[in-house]
Specification:
Two copies of one chain form a homodimer. By secondary structure, chain A is α/β, with parallel strands linked by helices. Chain A contains twelve helices and eight strands.
């Protein structure tokens, strides 16, 4: 069990400085996309056996974490892919949090949780606090999580409390990158502002609570903001001056250096760009055919991603 | 692995008929509230050991499920309390789904998930489909889950597909019972309707998709609607004629037979009322002091809950 390492926003910005760019690599393990070198090994070859799938996922993700560590400030572990492997999948998730921490990476648990009262407290305990059980004292919790705002502050407060107490971070979904995002997030409210802008205002309010804004000027409470709509991203950048944005969808989902630009302030700070498939499955992309091994392809894709965002925020 | 048993709404209504009332008992296991008879047993007595906590939770929940089975159409397992017990807690969760099914109860997984694309598909696979792994072929998934609407249809569709394919059910959060619910759900939109009403309209649209409405006239896609605001509940009852409501907050959260009444149609159908703490921790309530054992108190509370709602919908 490690000691709090100060404000999460400061930790994340320091990591970006060290790695050269504000980038996050998303880890979404899908057995059907894993390298042949892994799934051809006997104890990893039978997708119908959950133990084989888990061995393959663990081997792949462990290596990916080591490969991207020099280029990423953090990794984002997507809970859905581990839950689909049942309880042993959850054990694998926590193993990978530890692996990432050991490789000098911050870890964002992409869990998108929210509930109320003691339920939300239990979610925050599970996903942000190191276990209070003595028999799990070597288990490490993620440094930050994603949460859903639909229940209002009741659903988010226990996570924010964990951020205050344990130096952890929270990214509240404000505007997502999917096609149907506007069905709820884009509803126009009575004063003309869409719901996502109102949610952004709420998040900025939570972010400004005492004990959350670090010396860097950013809060441990940030926001998930898609870059699919440049105008909305620019608008939200103004609404939430103290929030770091976690920006999904770079690469495979169609985001480019140009589309993510409005998520940054003029000084080049304010956002962390996430790429998942375009980095971790680079070996399946013809662009990386020239590499001899899947590991080299992943490393090259991580380096390229880092350089693209570094160029964007540096210039 | 069991065969689909027809439309989920029909299954749930048939269960209510059999048990005499449309009631659901919520299972939120908290070690600090468990009966002395359980936590005093040696292998369950040390809360600092996760194994002890899990043994106690499993023993308690197994017994509660057996006690409430004659009085409840379904049990609702709250994922947060199991996630807080890490991977062995998740194994316990699936064990209890099986225990409940074996006791003739339908099971609602209160997971409040939502994500996009393959992530949402993975959540739906984990929480609604029986495992596709041959080594987990005795594992049974819940009959229905709760989901969050903030991402729009992309976040919900994989769950709805599972409902169509496997005879499962989905309850979309529309209006929650907590104090801050209106921060997002209560925002007034440009045409004067609050966000929750717009979400209710979306849910009714999803509920009407082909293959979801059963002979009973209700859809496998329902809604979570709190009864804390009678006018809103009545309004939502009209907006979603094909949706069964899962109504939280009866008992410990302050809901009474009167406050939940607007959630029902004139014919007494349309809602399932949930009570958690007031039933499963009845032995901690002075009202049940006269009973010799905690089991008798829980059974009495379940019977009373059933009778109260039966009287409400019958008259």
């Amino acid at each position: 069990v490690s000691e709090p390492a100060g404000n999460f926003a400061d930790q994340l910005l320091a990591a970006a400085k060290e790695k050269g760019a504000p980038v996050v690599v998303g880890i979404d393990p899908r057995y059907d996309l894993l390298p042949e070198e892994i799934v051809s090994q006997e104890h990893m070859s039978n997708a119908a056996r959950v133990e084989n799938t888990i061995d393959a996922v663990l081997a792949f993700c462990t290596k990916v974490i080591q490969l991207v560590a020099p280029y990423a400030a953090a990794v984002k572990l997507n809970s859905a892919f581990f839950e689909a492997l049942y309880w042993d999948g959850i054990e694998t998730y926590y193993s990978l949090v530890q692996e990432a921490a050991g490789n000098g990476l911050l870890v964002i648990g992409d869990v998108k949780r929210a509930d109320i009262g003691t339920s939300s407290e239990r979610y925050a305990a599970a996903h942000l606090a190191d276990p209070s059980f003595e028999t799990l004292d070597d288990v490490v919790a993620p440094d930050a999580v994603t949460v859903n705002p639909y229940l209002g502050s009741d659903g988010v407060t226990p996570f924010i409390e964990a951020a205050k107490t344990h130096g952890k971070g929270v990214f509240v979904l404000v505007r997502t990158s999917n096609e149907s995002a506007d069905q709820v997030q884009g509803l126009l409210t009575a004063d003309g502002a869409p719901v996502y802008r109102k949610v952004g205002q709420l998040v900025q309010g939570w972010a400004q609570q005492p004990g959350l804004i670090g010396p860097c000027g950013y809060s441990a409470v940030g926001a998930v903001v898609a870059a699919t709509d440049a105008q909305a991203a620019a608008e939200l950048r103004e609404v939430m001056p103290n929030c770091l944005f976690l920006v999904p969808g770079y690469g495979a989902q169609g985001g480019t250096a140009e589309t993510v630009k409005p998520c940054f302030k003029a000084d080049g700070t304010g956002s962390f760009i996430t790429a998942s498939r375009s980095v971790i499955y680079a070996f399946n992309d013809p662009e990386y055919n020239a590499f001899d091994t899947w590991e080299e392809a992943v490393e090259a894709a991580a380096r390229k991603f880092n350089k693209e965002i570094a160029a964007l925020v540096g210039g």
